[in-house]
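Writing this down once: the sequence line spells out the residues, with the fold written below as integer tokens. This is how one looks:
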Amino acid sequence: MMMMNLTSSSSSSAVFVIVIVIVILMIQSVVNASIHHYSNQPFTHRSNAFFFHAGTEALFSSSSSSHSFIRFDTVTFTRPKQSAITHGPMQQNTGLVEAIILQVQDRNRIGGFHFTPKSDLICCDPNLAKQHNCNLGEVIIHNNPNNPHFPKRIKTFFQGTSQIVHMDPQTVNINTTGMYYLYFMFCDPNLKGTTVTGTTVWRNPNGYLPGKMAPLMTLYAFMSLAYLFLGLLWFLRFVQFWKEKNIVHVHLHYHITAVIALGMCEMALWYFEYANFNATGTRPMGITIWAVTFTSVKKTLSRLLLLVVSMGYGVVRPTLGSQGVAYRVMLLGGLYFVACQVFELVEHLGNINDFSGKSKLLLVLPVVCLDSWFILWIFSSLSKTLEKLQTRRNLAKLEIYRKFTNTLAVSVLLSIAWVGFELYFNATDPLSELWQIAWIIPTFWSLLSYTLLLVICILWAPSRNPTRYAYLEGTDDFDEEGISLTSGVTKMSGDVAAMLERKERIGSSATDLTFGDDIEEDKRE
């Protein structure tokens, strides 16, 4: 059996390592950053145009002391040889590629939609050129009257038979807060097969951190201090009553301590990772992987903590039960860690643009299923634990578990409601127009996790009377009943003593009566 468990554990570890290595190799070239790199990226055909989505970021308006900007560094376009040789060596402007910068609310100002609501044309064709005076072979753009410089067009022309053209380095200043999109586009079908290579740099007034992510750095700083404060209080309480705890209860306290420490490290790592991102414009893979790993470990241990507490570990029972139960708990924790780690790695080490909805669904589905499994197992265990405590009439422990169950039930209801809100939010805002309030979604989950941990710390805090809440071998099953039994014995002993006293009195009276009779007989004699 031991060899089988070791073999299973080794296999699970090997699979986990392989999965993580594959994920890292897949996303290594597109690490999330405000400095966007392109390496021979192809264009996608749509309607009568070809486009490449070069980036999406939330940018704040420039301030008097610093500027928001998008800078084009060494951007190069390469067209196929077949397209280049159709022109003469002395010809000029033999192919046009346009860089289009627009805010998300100006998306309908690109293409023929402004002319004809049902039109899906992006480039100006001969009919539109005659009717609406657009430039043939160029992307149709209608400038925003409130911001005349946007959407902005930057043209780059191929010359002669050259296959390569370099975009002129330039910086576009951003004067209006918004979610900005950058596309490279061309309308000439002869340029099909063209690729783009180079770099663009996006920067906000306060650093490279995208506007959608900026509030999260403040959140991580606040949560780091909150975990530090909780950890300090827990440590002082832990040390104060160190000698008064039994060994099983200490194991539960160690688990709580580990979750607090992991939460503090997780938030601190994310804060420093975001701070570094804000200063440099890139996300170092090492720090990000550590932060993601701490997040996955902390999420896993938090759920395992809720599960073992619900099973009554350290309070109703000294162990998790049979070896099979412990193995299933460890298996569920291992599966959840792997699923969570893969999802977090792809989300945080992927491109700055959100990965596709299908890919996200594929990765988040295992996490959701395992979370559901945790919830069902937790409440099933809580039901059995409450029933056992009621049967044993352990009133103190029953009160604790009722409070814990109520808190957990409220948190689950809030989670379900928030998931519904999150789905509604994402469904109604696919283009991130509400990016300025998107930070409330991860903030809720961080605060909910912290609140649950705080409740567990309060309910199972070290105290002067640990035996009231901890499991004690040989006495736990009968602590409340023992008190009743003792009371009954005391009462019975009092009744017996009273009966013996009455018997003694009756005996004394009988003796006195006999002794008096003897005296009378003596007198008569």
